[in-house]
Amino acid sequence: MNDYAFFNARPFMTKKKRLRRDERRARKLAERRMENYPALLATHEYRGQQQAKVGKEPLGEPIESLVSKGFRHLQQFFPDLKKHQLVSEYRQRGYAYDTKWDDPLSHGLMLGLQQQIEGACNVLGYELRDGVSIGFLRAESTEAMQQPVMLTETSVIMMTENLYMLIHRTAKLLALTVPFKVVNGDQFKISEDIADAVALVNSNDQLREEWARLFIDHAVAPGTPYRGEVVIVTGKERQTMWEDLGDAMNLFVVGHEYAHHILKHSLSGSASVSGLDVDASHRMEYEADILGLMLSMQAGYSEASPNIFACFGVGAAIVLSVIEYCRHAAQILASGVVTHESRTTHPSLPSRLECIAQIVPEILRPYGPDQIEVVRRIHGMFVGIIQNAWNSAEEVLTRAHQQGSRPVYRDDGGWLPGRGMALVSDDYVETA
Ligand SMILES: [Zn+2]
């Protein structure tokens, strides 16, 4: 029996230890900002320009009302949560924001991810050059991107809110789907058998429907997908899985974009992806996946209670799969078939998943026994859940296309090229 699948269920949000950790991170980040202040100041400004270009208004909502809204939402899951705990949590996080478009609460989440990935860079000895300005982009696409800022050693890294919401929703549904057994007291072990998970979904109409809707929502309005009904996740085991799965996916997405920055990919090729040959572009994506894995695995391992899903590269396999099937969903509703239009810039999903499944055991090799089989099983289980859900959604969407339904696009001239979903793509935009 392997001990990789044992988890320690823990209370959510309020642990003093975590508050202290967040406080430490906020302080470190502030120190780091002072060192690189002149270079990063211009980069924050450049990121603000990108946020302005998508045509959204700067956020003017005061922190108190944001906290109130957040509290009302969280109270549904954590009935014991007190408002002052939430306020104090955000205070200690330092709810910093760097541009007028950064919403202080969600920006705090991005700064937390930045801290984790930059911490991993330090441990593994990767040079961050002059640093990164990171944030959310309220663009009508589902992707993350890295852009070098010309004449500097900095980059802008952004994730769209759509991608963050997709990750959040996927993590919740997975947390409700994965069967587990409590082993003793606070320990639990998840099943490795995909049949258990499929049986659980098939026996629960509401869960099956939520899974199908995840893809259907992205097909119906790819630019502004409906974010789904409130799905309640209760129980400390499932809440632990929800949190760790979401973190593992986010860490891989941010780690992948940091990898492009560290490896200076956008500087080594031409300024536009269309000018690069397919092989060079695919090679850079594989490199970013591999370094992104190393960074996200290290970041997950450094947690007070290690994030097993990050440590085993599970977050990477899940997020790439769910993103790909959301793209397929929009393509099927639009044209009845999957068009694979992103293949010129990114390798195919099966190739990326195979690369990840091979690389994770290599990264783990110096730290213990051989994990090749374990990684295959646990990745197969999670990717299998996503595929099973996609298969049901695909049937519905194919029928809907035949009956004349098409995706709705609200084309308001966003700056991201194309109107499809170039997911976890990297947009090599030259700065003016
Ligand atoms: Zn990339």
Describe this structure in words.
The chain is mainly alpha-helical and 432 residues long. The chain has a domain at 162-402. It has helices at 16-35, 37-53, 63-75, 83-93, 104-124, 161-177, 194-202, 205-220, 236-262, 265-268, 278-301, 308-311, 314-335, 349-364, 372-402, and strands spanning 6-8, 132-137, 144-148, 155-160, 180-184, 187-190. The strands form 2 sheets. The chain has a 3-stranded antiparallel β-sheet, with no helix packed on it. It has a 3-stranded mixed β-sheet with strand order 2-4-3, sandwiched between helices. The chain is globular and about 55 Å long. It starts with 5 loop residues before the first strand and ends in a 30-residue tail after the last helix. Zinc ion is lined by residues 256, 260, 285, 288, 426.
Low-confidence stretches: 1-5, 412-432
Mean pLDDT: 83
Characterize the main sheet: 3 strands, antiparallel
> What are the bound molecules?
zinc ion
**Helix content estimate:** 55-70%
Please provide the ordered H/E string of secondary-structure elements: EHHHHHEEEHEEHHHHHHHHH
Measured between the Cα atoms of the first and last residue, the distance is 57 Å
Q: From the alpha-carbon coordinates, what is the Rg to the nearest angstrom?
A: 21 Å
